[in-house]
Amino acid sequence: MTSRERVLQALDFKRTDRLPKDLGAMRSTGISAFAYPKLVAALGLPPRRPRVHDTWQMLAFPDLDVLDALGCDVVTVDGGVTDAFEEPEKWHDYDFGGRLAARVLNPSSFKTLNDGTVVQWDNARMPPSSFVFNVEHSGNPVLDFNKPLPLLNLKKYQADLRAGALKDEQIKRTADLCRRVRAATDRAVFCADHCGARIAIGAHNGIGVFPVICVLEPSYVRELHEITIEHVLGDLRRLLPEIRSHVDIVMTGCDDWGTQKSLIASPQVFRTLFLPYYRRVNDEVHRLAPGIKTFMHNCGAIYDLLDMLVESGFDIINPFQWPAGGHGYRAWKEKLRKRAAIWGGGVNTQHTLALGTVRDVVREVKEVCRCFSKSGGFVFNNIHNLLAEVPAEKVLAMYRAAENF
After folding, report:
1. Residue 187 near residue 3 (C-beta atoms within 8 A)
2. Partner of 405 for a Cys bridge, out of 55, 361, 366, 377, CB 3.0 to 4.6 A?
3. Low pLDDT (below 50) residues in the chain
4. Would residue 329 count as lying in a domain?
């Protein structure tokens, strides 16, 4: 099988020659740019500057020789760039205050302070002791209940969306890049550009505010989401016909509904204010491009949402964070019952991968892979990104265990 055939067969719950694997297809299946050079060295490959495509999380674009060495089957189109081939004209050297010799798309967005802190866009900071950028409250305002709820002017919001509709040149650029990627590789192509529903439990005013608005002002949220989805559908109807022959998976949902123990908002809020709108987007993608799979990223203890994510029309659910919420991986797998594919979930990132031994990692990966790969519907990745502190030997052990479980 080619890598593309392997991934698509798995997503259709059909037999494959081996388990398909991913590294870096989207911004929650990647690897820290600080960990990446160590992985390259452990694989015996020539050193290189990592391309940091997500400079907030500090994620490295995996190079093709790394994907080859780990047996990974997916490449991406994300933010107007790809890991399917070199694009040297887009990348520029930057060393993050002398801590990391890397390449970035826009070095002018950074400055280094006297204490070594790197500042991005004048508000996000990465101190010398940190491996990611952060802002106060992670960029989420704290709700002041003594003031009116911060509701948008929906007429202005609608006008702003119309002004920001995809331009012909943007569509042409995205389509040209997708076409070149398809011609350059036999891997499955994941597209994260311009296909998302743009609704999320923390999408407006942040995760500390919008769930409250959903409860107190549901009519406002319905109108907000109706305006948003009409805009998204308009963009999709222009873009998808141009890229549908060149991509295999599109990310139509990206959210974080779960904490470590429970949901952030009630299932009823999801059913009434989110599910109908996700369904419209996914149905339109499937109508316009029947061969494309839709992908939902949703972190945390979302076990009680799995049925509704399927009902929303998502073909794939990621990162499948089964340690959150008190259910084990077998219960999460059984909950889906071949109705949606699992992308991720291959090892407990917060505990086993971070704190366990190499032997612990191998044991858990093999156990989870045996369970998740039954009846197909599984693309291997760990739960969320490989952090800077994870040693290369654990990363190699993880991928090798997924190869031979």
Report:
1. yes
2. 366
3. none
4. yes
Question: Measured between alpha carbons, how far is 395 from 390 in angstroms, rounded to an integer?
Answer: 7
| pTM, 2 dp | 0.97
Q: CB atoms < 10 A from the CB of 171, how many?
A: 18
- For residue 294, the SS3 value is strand
Residue of 195, 210, 209 whose CA lies nearest to 254? 195
Half-sphere exposure of 204 (CA within 13 A, CB side): 19
Average pLDDT taken over every residue of the chain: 96
- The two three-digit tokens of residue 34, written as one number: 């600080």
The structure tokens listed for 77 are 């189109």
Contact 26, 190 (CB under 8 A): yes
Which amino acid is located at 236 in the chain? L
**What's the structural domain count of the chain?**
1
Which CATH number fits the domain that encloses residue 181? 3.20.20.210
Residue at token pair 């994870």: 390
Residue 334's contacts (CB-CB under 8 Å, 6 or more residues apart) are none
Dihedral sign for Cα 258, 259, 262, 264, please: negative
Residue 338's nearest CA partner among 366, 377, 307, 297 is 377
Q: Could you tell me the residue range of the domain that residue 342 belongs to?
A: 3-31+67-86+148-403
Residue 233 lies in a domain: yes
pLDDT of residue 21: 98
Residue 109 lies in a domain: no
How far is the C-alpha of 320 from the C-alpha of 299, rounded, in Å? 7
Q: Which residues pair with 137 in a beta bridge?
A: none
Length of the chain: 405
Separation of first and last alpha carbons in the chain: 19
Rounded (10°) angle between helices 275-288 and 218-243 = 10
Instruction: Assess if residue 207 is contained within a domain.
Output: yes
Question: Where do we find the tokens 């780990």?
Answer: 70
With contact defined as beta carbons under 8 Å apart, do 278 and 297 qualify?
A: no
HSE at residue 46, side-chain half, CA atoms within 13 A, is: 4
CB count in 10 Å sphere of residue 135: 13
How confident is the model at residue 144, as a pLDDT? 83
